[in-house]
Design a protein that fits this description.
The chain is mostly helical. The chain is about 75% helix and about 5% strand. It has helices at about 1-15, 15-20, 35-95, 105-125, 125-130, 135-145, 155-165, 170-184; strands at about 20-25, 25-30. It has a two-stranded antiparallel ribbon.
Length: about 180
């Protein structure tokens, strides 16, 4: 039964038979199936958009939800790395005797870490500071990025720098003035 209905529809809607279905006297009976399809599509446009658009939007939102944590993690890690590069550069520029590519001694590395960390704390957004592990995490990451001499160790460099940061011996106003001088 279904097969016969499909065959009848194919015969009626066929482009070969579309122009003339039958003749009555000397006049042809034309089946305007193209106009019917256009009218049907126009009349169904609103219900289709009302039903299909939310379904498609739901799938897109699901896909974004699955990808968002990875994208947020990547972007925050990238931002932390950019912040650390700026902190190392600032610390090296702010301390006499420190230069990029130069091996730093213990007495130069401690203020470089302290000033670089304080610079980040004063200028970076709180979310980035939190993602980096706070002041101690930032100091530890700067410590790992520096080229230190053989006598430098975590106990000799990082711990005193963290104590200096915790004591607040690095002044934020001094850092801002130094930052303005380095930008000129």
């Amino acid at each position: 039964m279904l097969l016969l209905a499909a065959l009848a529809l194919a015969c009626v809607a066929s482009p070969v038979l579309a122009a003339e279905v039958a003749t009555i006297g000397d006049k042809a009976v034309i089946l305007p199936w193209g106009d019917w399809l256009v009218a049907l599509a126009v009349s169904l446009r609103e219900p289709i958009l009302t039903i299909l658009l939310p379904i498609i939007a739901a799938y897109v939102i699901q896909a974004i939800r699955k990808v968002y944590p990875w994208a947020a993690l990547f972007l925050s890690q990238r931002r932390v790395e950019m912040m650390l590069e700026a902190a190392v550069g600032f610390g090296l520029n702010a301390v006499n005797g420190a230069a990029k590519g130069k091996t730093l001694s213990v007495n130069v590395a401690v203020p470089v870490i302290a000033k670089g960390t304080q610079y980040v704390i004063d200028t970076a957004p709180p979310a980035v500071i939190k993602a980096a592990g706070g002041a101690d995490g930032i100091a530890a990451r700067i410590f790992r990025k520096l080229d230190l001499d053989d006598h430098a160790s975590e106990a000799a460099v990082l711990v005193p720098a963290q104590e200096q940061i915790a004591a607040g011996t690095v002044d934020a106003d001094e850092l801002r003035r130094m930052d303005e001088m380095t930008r000129r």
